[in-house]
Amino acid sequence: PPEIEWVLRDLEEDGPPEGPFDLIVSFRYLHRPLLRDIRELLTPGGSLVLETFTTLHREQHGKPSRDDHVLQVGDVERLAPGLKIRYADEGWHGDIHTGRLCAVNKL
Predict the structure, then answer these.
(1) Residue-level pLDDT at 53
(2) For a pLDDT cut of 90, what percent of the chain falls above it?
(3) Rounded distance, CA 10 to CA 47, Å?
(4) What dihedral angle (degrees, nearest 10) is formed by the CA atoms of 79, 84, 10, 19?
(5) Quick check: helix, strand or coil at residue 73?
(6) Are strands 21-27 and 96-105 parallel, antiparallel or unpaired?
(7) Do strands 21-27 and 42-53 pair parallel, antiparallel, or not at all (unpaired)?
(8) Residue 23 half-sphere exposure, CB side, CA atoms within 13 Å?
(9) pLDDT tens per residue across span 32-52
(10) Using omega within 30 degrees of 0 as the cis cutoff, is the peptide bond preceding 20 cis?
(11) How far apart, in whole angstroms, are the C-alpha atoms of residue 79 and residue 8?
């Protein structure tokens, strides 16, 4: 099987690592500048899997504190311009409200 290269990086400080990648995963963190260029970071056929907090979660729990780190309700499908949406969902999952997205870079 192909070798997996794990990358841990401060995206706000250092920006994204040089791609392209077959898979980008982001859970409970939203960095909008990265998503604007997501197609260039993914290989053709590469996937984005994302789950992030919404404004409803912040109203209930008080965090994340920064506006740019929460998803507006109804925006989950607009997170990955140019990608084909395979799955998109917003809702309560236990006591957290998140948007979930799985999208593929079109071939």
Answers:
(1) 95
(2) 47
(3) 21
(4) -150
(5) coil
(6) unpaired
(7) parallel
(8) 8
(9) 887 888 888 999 999 999 999
(10) yes
(11) 22
